Structures are given as structure tokens and as C-alpha cells.
Amino acid sequence: MLVIVNDTYDPMSKEAAKLVADRLRKKPNLVLGLATGSTPLGLYKELIRFHKEEGLDFSKVTTFNLDEYVGLPPSHNQSYHYFMNEHLFKHINLDPRHIHVPQGMAKDVDVFCSWYEQRIAECGGIDLQVLGIGANGHIAFNEPGSSLGSRTRIKTLTGTTRGDNSRFFKPNEDVPRYAITMGVGTIMDSKELLLLASKTGKAEAVKAAVEGPITAMCPASIIQMHRSAFVFLDKEAASELTGMYNDTWESKVFA
Length: 255
Known about the structure:
Layout: E1 2-6, H1 9-26, E2 31-34, H2 41-54, E3 62-65, E4 67-69, H3 80-87, E5 99-100, H4 109-122, E6 128-131, E7 153-156, H5 159-165, E8 178-181, H6 184-188, E9 192-197, H7 203-211, E10 229-234
Helix pairs in contact: 1-2
């Protein structure tokens, strides 16, 4: 695991985007795992800039999103389908046939989850998975206590997570209680991981994930076991860490 600390959010996002662009240039048919939420927005903005100004080509890329709320149609402005289209997909030359986002309106969620796992495998697995981290240490919607070997499935969201996400919904709108999410085991199967965290509200979760014990009570801590994981932080998110982290991702070479 390589931890890269930048002064603020913008340079953190730009450095992370450089890594994604590097992997895409080396493998034009990259299988890219994507996350939603406010933290990766800077990364996506920079990837769009790379596409428009430097010709970064997404035409052969296949994407898999981590999660989606159960019960929200793709047209809902808080669905992750909608989020990804607004903040990335419609701005780059990604083939819509190669986009995969969990179906929150699936009639049989279990069947869909099995298909999603199968589809990832058919594409050769995820090459690079973008991750955020929740204040309670969750990755995707794998809440504290989730099995570290779990696969794509439906999860009940904790009160903490629903409270964090309530700001995105109207006052009279109920925050979804369930989500389809890639499992921790699914995420760990990715060839490389790229986790982003920003602001002091994530500092304790980052410390638990990076320097704490590996435990299901902090699902993000499992990234310590991954052979090629990059953690991009701003100084606020890194403020609780006790180690010295001043390396760059370009210097890391894996066998």
C-alpha cells in the first residue's frame, strides 16, 4: 500500500487522475471500477480535461460501478446512474455498451448480483478500482461488520450512512435503506486499488484503514492486504496518521 499525501483536494485529485490516465494509456481496453460521492468528483473532472485537451481515449474502456440504491430508477437525480452520467460518462467517448452500474430496480436482486459478478469475470476482472471511504470505514456500501470475503449483494445501510447521504435528498424524501454493492472480496480481486479521501471528517476512518488492525468493523482496512493499493489523501484526511508518507505513485514498482 502506497499513501500519497497532497496539501489540498485539487492536487490530490489531479495526482490520482494521472495514475488513471497512465494505466489507460498503457492498456486502452482498461476495465475501470468507479465510485460515486463528492470525493472522486475532482478526479473525474481531471479525466474529462485529459480527454478534451489531451485526447485521452475511453472508447475501449469498460466500467463497473461499485453500487446503487435499491428502488431508485436510473432517471432519479440521486441514482448513481444519473450521477455518473452527469459527472463523467456524457463528457467522454465511453461506449454506452461498456458501462455497468448495478440495477437498483432489478426484479430479482440476487440473480442480478450473480450476473454482475459473472460479467466482471467475463471482462477479465477489474484492472483499477476507484474507491472512497465512509466516515465509519465503509467501502462501497460494505458497512462495518461486512464479511471481508463478500461478493456483490444487497446490503442494509446503517443509520450513519443514511444520515450522511440524507443531504442529497429532499427534506420529505426517504433516504434509501438498501443498496446493491460490490462485496469486499469483489473489490479485493481488482488488480489495483485507488482510494481517495479528503477533509478532516474522514481522518479517523483513514487512520483505521491505513494504520489500524484489519477488521470487518472497518472494511476499508482490508486494503492493507492488497498488493497494489494507492491511497490519495489531502493533509486534512491524513491528519490522524502517525507514519511518514511522502512518496509518489510513480516510484512504486510491483513484481
